[in-house]
Fold these 2 entries.
Entry 1:
Amino acid sequence: MQRPDLRQHGIMSDRDVLRLDDSALAKQAHLTTAEAKALVDDVTQRCAPLPVSGQDLLAQFSEGLTVLSTGCQSIDDMLAGGLYSGELTELVSASGSGKTQLCFSCAAKTACQLYEVVYFDSGSSSCGQRIADFVRAFVAQDQSQQREEDVLRRIQFEQTHTAQELLDRLHALGEQLVAQPQSALRLLVVDSLAALLTPLVGGRQTHGPAIMSSLGVKIKALALDHNLAVLVTNYMVSEGGGGSRPALGVSWASVPHMRLQLHTEESDLLIARSAVVLKSQRLQRWTSCRFLISEEGLTEHG
């Protein structure tokens, strides 16, 4: 059908047509109800996605998929191989449970696989030596001919002090990836996202939720558009009755594709850790594994 010029009536795109029902469109565009219905049908037919079989969807998913090892076999087994590109994975736990150590392990192992890593660190302590320990262990374990210095060069550390600074750097990273479509970047780490956002949410803060929402949208867009696995950390806060819950509230809880909670299990002989799936789009909830943290890295336990 020949479409009328609707711009003079404030209807600038197909989306504007589809957001109105037939009667509202007829009134705003000065059309008859029949003309409005025909226009909506025409736009819907052109914009609606074509049917896709489950086999085709699986092929599309697998074609660009990268699975990154965490550096710990028990965690990889629990995650069906490791961290998946296109996914945002969140680690939550009390302090000292191993979130940052797991981030270090993932970063070092990814760099050993010849991929690049961007690691946004909101802490003040130097992590270079600990990352080097992981890299040294992985290079020796894999009997690789790589030099440790070359592996470490693939990990880019950036200190971030505010949520707005992180958002600005993520936008810059997105522009860089658009300009370099063949980039080897595959892992993005934000440790700790909660440390940057907590001062902005709750109380009388008004712009905090908006920044948190913008960060969530931007991080997930980077993961999907540029085939990145994203790993962020969050901590636990106290709640009534002596319990605890992940920080950042329910509005953030819907953002990650996967949420893993780490626990510390102490005994007379050693301190073990466990990881439990709290939320996942592809794994069964409450799936768990145990691991140890040593000078050489993360290892299986029991």
Entry 2:
Amino acid sequence: HVTVGIIGAKALFKVLYSGGHVQTGIDLAEQTTQPSWGYMAYNDLEPTTSSLWELWDTPTEGPGMNSRNHHMFSSISEFLVRAVSGIDDFACRDAVHVRPAQAPGIAWASVHVNTVCGNMSVAYRRTGGLQCAKVPEGRSSLQPALLAVDDVVLDCGEHGGVVAAIDFASWGLPYGTCGEFQANSTCGADVTAAVAKACVGQRRCTLSSKATTWPAPGPACSGPRRLFVQATCTAPHGVEVALAVPAAIREAVVHLPLAGADPARVDLFEGADES
């Protein structure tokens, strides 16, 4: 969890990124228990929709200096664009480097940026091999009036074969990063068999994060729960990258998001934006 406020968060992600600790930044971005950005959207008191709170504990504080529509210096948004998608340089140069996150838990990412040199976009997907999915408890369970975000998709990818096995699946308060998931001993229900029944043999399967779908994870649970799933696909790890850069940029170098694995397949699609 974060231990800083708005000012500290502005520097936090930049330091993690420049210091090579992108996975730690992703873990912070994906956290859904308090205090966190995810808790703002997935809490049972006052879930946000497309904005941020001014305070970590906004619902329990008074009205003074307590906005529900705060930019927070866009620090987490900048981190997602620069560190996760890999577009870190918006200047008009002869050559640019695109460095997507080397994180096994990021199955895909896509971003489009309008730079001073023209439009630049990158989209990538990791296929086959190890695939993970994490989703908090469906928002319709917390606040029925809000738009429901109740599903998580586990996808081996077009060239990744089908799901061969479910290595981990827990409903409650599991923790950890992809490849190192851990069940919570006081708030966790093992749902491996149910997920395997739905996903093994499928290239792509959809799982609900509604609380009514899964067994009760235990009396020690408080607040919104979450579903963590880890699967192994029949085809080895591969990566697909689509990149478009302004015509004024003569060279673009892509650092493939291999996440520590040697890919059996690499597909690169490149293009130029004439604007």
